[in-house]
Write a structure and sequence with these properties.
It is built from 3 helices and 8 strands, in the order H-E-E-E-E-H-H-E-E-E-E. The N and C termini lie far apart (34 Å). It has a single domain, classed as Chemotaxis protein chec, CATH 3.40.1550. The mean pLDDT is 81. Strands 1, 2, 3, 4, 5, 6, 7 and 8 form an 8-stranded antiparallel beta sheet that branches. By secondary structure, it is α+β, with helices and mostly antiparallel strands. The longest helix has 22 residues, at 94-115.
């Protein structure tokens, strides 16, 4: 990046970002006894996936709408599930996809609890799971805040797009 280029500004309230980061940390600690390292948040527009499988959930509150995506490299999700259940995972099957959805749902629930008493009261839709490379286009016009996480040799991403309702 040259001196003339500026990083895009993260224009999502830090209350939201921090609530979801805490949701990720608590979920990994509870589910798989893993401590996560939080990377630097960045902005991406248009959004392109960072992982091989993702849990996604829509968010709506007042005049805001958004999408929360938790995306995993497949070997990272396999390792998390292995830590949780003491079994070896090596195929992106329905069980693994369901776990990605539940992981996302749990993170969302913790984040909502963390935001209770703030100005945010998001309503959630039913989580979806996407397997394979994907791109979200023309669904949201907002920028996507991406926060990378690492735990041991596991890498995954929190991706949050928030935009005003029109």
């Amino acid at each position: 990046m040259s001196a003339a280029e500026k990083k895009p500004e993260i224009n999502v309230d830090p209350i939201m970002i921090d609530a979801f980061i805490d949701g990720v940390k608590q979920t990994l600690k509870t589910w798989a006894n893993l401590e996560v390292e939080v990377g630097e948040a960045s902005v991406q527009h248009p959004f392109e996936s960072k992982g091989d499988i993702a849990g996604m959930v829509g968010l709506v509150f007042g005049d805001l709408k958004g999408t929360l995506t938790i995306s995993f490299k497949e070997n990272g999700l396999f390792k998390i599930l292995g830590e949780m259940f003491g079994e070896e995972y090596n195929t992106l099957d329905d069980e693994v996809a369901g776990a990605a959805g539940e992981f996302t749902n749990t993170i969302y629930g913790i984040a909502i609890e963390n935001m209770r008493g703030t100005k945010y009261d998001f309503k959630m839709s039913i989580p979806s799971v996407v397997v394979g490379r994907y791109k979200i286009s023309k669904v949201h016009r907002g920028n996507t805040v991406i926060v990378p996480f690492k735990a041991e040799d596991i890498e995954f991403f929190f991706e949050l797009t928030i935009e005003p309702l029109k």
